Amino acid sequence: MPLPSSARALKKPRLDDEVRFLRSWIEKPLHMGAVMPSGKLLARTMAHYVDVDSDAPVVELGPGTGAITSALIERGVDPKRLVLVEYNPGFCALLRDRYPQAKVVQGDAYRLRDTLWNVLSAPASAVVSGLPLVTKPMLTRLRLIRDAFTALAPGAPFVQFTYAVVPPIPKSLPGVSTEASERIWMNLPPARVWVYRKD
User: Fold this and answer.
1) The domain spanning residue 89 has which CATH number?
2) Following DSSP, what letter does each residue of the chain receive, concatenated?
């Protein structure tokens, strides 16, 4: 039985996003954190760790088509607080169209200090990352979290998801506390959210 036109209209943006993701993944697989956009439960779990009552910026790394961005806004984060750091120019154009109040920065999140130079008006209340960390060398991952902590307010979270069973950044970093969500089995593939805070 065919879907009613209203249901087809709701499914079309998600299908379009999946096609965009798949095309980008085929072109540059190691630049993409996922083959498909994050599932809603994973996106909501990541957004859960962000303080909605703060006025400070929220930096999202690798937002892609905006699955996690949407979850942040649904949770109550003011879109004006969002700083979306995206490498792919096509995704940047899409994000500017979908989230006109957010600040979209086309740049390399793995060079976060340079990318955010002169962008943040105050220390960030969270950095939320959809980057493919486990595809990168450990030194690159450690440099990213070091730069993220430089941009963050004291005690603010660096939130990262991974499909891997091991944490994307070691749990034993000196001066850093770590927590993890339950495995999110409803996501394809199943994922876990890791949260790092500088003590």
Assistant:
1) 3.40.50.150
2) -PPPHHHHHHHHHHHHHHHHHHHHHHH-GGG-S-SSPPPHHHHHHHHHTS-TT--S-EEEE--TTTHHHHHHHHHT--GGGEEEEES-HHHHHHHHHH-TTSEEEES-GGGHHHHHTTT-SS-BSEEEE---GGGS-HHHHHHHHHHHHHHBPTT-EEEEEESSSS-SS-TT-TTEEEEEPPPBTTSSS-BEEEEEEE-
